[in-house]
Amino acid sequence: MVASAAQVSRVAVSRAFNPHASILPEKRARILKVAGELNYTPDRAARALATRRSHLVGVIVPDVCSPWESQEIDALTSALQVEGFATLLFKTRTDMRMDERLLAYVGGFNPDSVIAFAENVGPDTLGRVLHRATPIYVCYPDDGDGRPGSEGAVFDRLNVMQRTGIEQAVALVSGYGCRRLAYLEGDRRSLANTARERTLRAVLRERGLGEPVVVRGDFTYETALSSTVELFRMLGGAEAIFAANDVGAFGAIDALRFELGLRVPEDVKVVGFDDIAQAHWRSYHLTTVRVDLVERVRALVSLIRRRLKDPGAPAIEETVQTRLVVRGTVG
Amino acid sequence: MVASAAQVSRVAVSRAFNPHASILPEKRARILKVAGELNYTPDRAARALATRRSHLVGVIVPDVCSPWESQEIDALTSALQVEGFATLLFKTRTDMRMDERLLAYVGGFNPDSVIAFAENVGPDTLGRVLHRATPIYVCYPDDGDGRPGSEGAVFDRLNVMQRTGIEQAVALVSGYGCRRLAYLEGDRRSLANTARERTLRAVLRERGLGEPVVVRGDFTYETALSSTVELFRMLGGAEAIFAANDVGAFGAIDALRFELGLRVPEDVKVVGFDDIAQAHWRSYHLTTVRVDLVERVRALVSLIRRRLKDPGAPAIEETVQTRLVVRGTVG
CA-nearest residue of chain B to A128? Predict the structure, then answer.
């Protein structure tokens, strides 16, 4: 109906609705206009069965979303939309593992790709429920550990190299003469957190700076605030605090300033991790290890495109770097 | 295959995978276990065709996501997941309108429901691309305006009553003797912003407090910061600032403290809107008009369930209130 009303072929109508197909912009506009007048839209459920493409990308995120994850989902959704994909969100249980039933749903939606973290669901488990999609895992290879365990399942990787940024942070802090250092943890079940701690320890050892005091944390502002108070009231304090994420660093800064009457950076230096949008707000103006969000999203989209082009390829990977962004909380 | 291996009926297998179906927990667990061993999951594309249910809820958000929207998407995804729905994200163009082609995709995914704002896409336009779903619009009815324009399209409503919270904020601020008041705008294309401004003006008039100075804003920290500096350097300043959102209030507070050398609340009082998680951080400790996120998400999920139970019902609505949360930035 649309084809005859717009005086084009049925193939042209199909191409007009397919963001991956090349078609003259005026032709696409005319077809979409006619389709609109006729109330026609292609049904993706029907089309998914025919093409075996769902145009859905699943993203599995922890139960409680941090600003970092929100900003990543936001940027990723924009980038995927340009490529003709919609983002489908799934959240883990509070213990960060995936519900059996939810896992079945993930597969049931037949996504073209799924982005996951090994601490939430392993590649073997996830691979078992996916019909065609090869999952993408976020890995921290320069840590020498923290890789998703696999008994042979194929998965693609986004390698986040945390070491460079951490080395720069340690160099800066030790350059200001700080010797007594603390690491304010993130959630211990998070591989990003354990990789950060392990890399920080390795870098400190290499520079002969000894072990950091480890302060309990869970990526939240509240725990960071109370743990920092405890660090100074019970554990002898520190000259510099490395936080596992920016939100934790904000909690530490507020504890130092408002609970302990200490100045940042004069009395205590603070370094965050992530570089979320709030890190440059004047009240914090945080020196932090940056994971470039644009670069990270570009790498994820590239993994999705490369895999869809060659479904039979062996595991593929993309790599992103970290670097220190120097603002006002160190020297 | 699964039915015979688990020694149950095919109906039971289908029920085990349907979160809405009642089935004994042990039975469901056994079926899912067997299904896992056989690598079986129901394909939602096939099922959507059969049941005409996609188990997808579309959410249309502005191009640049604020912390408020992120927190709402996060809470909504958790709540929908419990009900067996997955959240599908769509983002508008930078001018806040929806792309024609994207609109066709929204319909193509055949969502069971779509949550939208009238400034992004009108009910008539959205209704035209949806096959079965009745869209849900967020409305501000106590403002007397700001409703989505409709030429007869049926849509469901979440009514956000902004007036109560704004009245409480004005009472508190005027109780401290502030007379010269400013309104720090959000994006002018946002109906939430225009409704807030109009309601604030109405409440000020009723209390004989005169017109507020209006300061340019767009919901971002950066614009709020520079506009607040301009307010004090060029426009004679204000005794109290009502911001259209919390992030804008943070920008105003930082401008007052770090650019203008003024104290909050001693020299200038600041009130936000939303009550995002960051509002209680010590550096801001913001007095703000709260839209209860849990209540709001519950109302949205209720609208979705009520509509799916009775697809032919006339427009349905749910209502949420606002109230002032008093912290440290006023008196």
Answer: B39
Chain A residues touching residue B44 (CB < 8 angstroms): 105, 108-110
Contact (CB<8Å) B41/A108: yes
Q: What is the sign of the dihedral through the CA atoms of A211, A213, A217 and A219?
A: negative
Residue B90: partners with Cβ closer than 8 Å, 6 or more residues away: A77, A81, A86, B58, B59, B60, B61, B98, B102, B105, B106
Shared domain check, B272 and B171: yes
> A204 and A218: one domain?
yes
Residue of chain B minimizing CA distance to A285: B254
Residue B120 lies in a domain: yes
ipTM for the assembly: 0.85
The answer to the question of residue A324 being in a domain is: no
Q: Which domain holds residue B148?
A: 52-161+292-320
Q: Could you tell me if B88 and B68 lie in one domain?
A: yes
Flag the least confident range among A104-118, A249-263, B34-48, B93-107.
B34-48
Contacts of A63 in chain B (CB under 8 A): 78
pTM for this entry: 0.87
Q: Which of B42, B110, B278 lies closest to A44 in CB terms? A: B110
**Which residues of chain B are under the pLDDT cut of 70?**
18-21, 39-51, 144-151
**Chain A residues with beta carbon closer than 8 angstroms to that of B45:** 45, 48-49, 54, 110
Q: Are residues B297 and B157 in the same domain?
A: yes
- Would residue B329 count as lying in a domain? no
Which of B32, B45, B63 is the closest to A48 by Cβ? Answer: B45
Q: At what angle do helices A67-82 and B67-82 cross, to 10 degrees?
A: 90
Are residues B207 and B278 located together in one domain of the fold? yes
Angle between helices A67-82 and A293-309 (to 10 degrees): 50
